[in-house]
Amino acid sequence: MTANNQTSAPPLGGRGANLFTINTGLFKLDGGAMFGVVPKTIWSKTNPANEQNLCTLAMRCLLVQDDDRLILIDTGIGNKLSEKVLPYYHLYGDDTLDSSLAQHGFSRADITDVFLTHLHIDHVGGAVIKEGNQLLPAFPNATYWTNEQHWQWATVNPNDREKASFLKENFMPLKESGKLKFLEVKDGIQFSTNIQVQFVNGHTKAMMLPLLQYKGCKLFYVADLVPTTGHLPVPYVAAYDMFPLQAMNEKRTYLQQALNEEYILYFEHDAMIECCTLMQTDKGIRVKDVFKLTDI
User: Which pTM was predicted?
Assistant: First the structure.
């Protein structure tokens, strides 16, 4: 099934959508895991760690007002982590999904679509809430979107490395509610008037990356393809990537495309930098200018 059967929608262009940054809080993960084989003496220059070797990461989602649709891209980790799981993520900060929506004049009931880049805990946890003993879709009027390849990957015998990130309470209630739909896995598929979707497979199977038209620019929501600006060098891939060589090749391809076509990158996990443009250097493609969405 495709998003509202809009495979024949026009290409990116025109005035574009309205975009709003949705901050859902901060968390910490092991720096070695975030940078794989890259030595700490190198990665700590851009992503400093505390005494426990933990780096600070954001959970920065994106709200898209596109025609008559209000689309939330990813949902953060949510607030229903068990006492067993909670200590692993070191959650902190004052931002929540609800407070960020309210800051822009919206509530969960206003959301028409929830676009899930993938089903890892820090991207889908806020999609389901716990009310009493019930697990319910957090956005009562929304359709939720993933794709069948990733759904099968996450739900049918998930691999041992990844299954701790695929918690069924974060997505099975969506399926059971009848609110979950699948996008066709096809690069460039049109999700809404101003959103196209690209698919990558290095981090996890069939992760979905939105490419948006905004104020005459192309904005690329890079999710875990490039978690932070510190991950721009092609070899800097996380131990969380299931297929690191493929992740490197995908990063190389999309960064070159982003450079050539002057994309703005929007970072989900960089705690300090929301957006950047790119430039070619003698060391490879690197950050040019950094700014917030509101500065565009």
Answer: 0.93
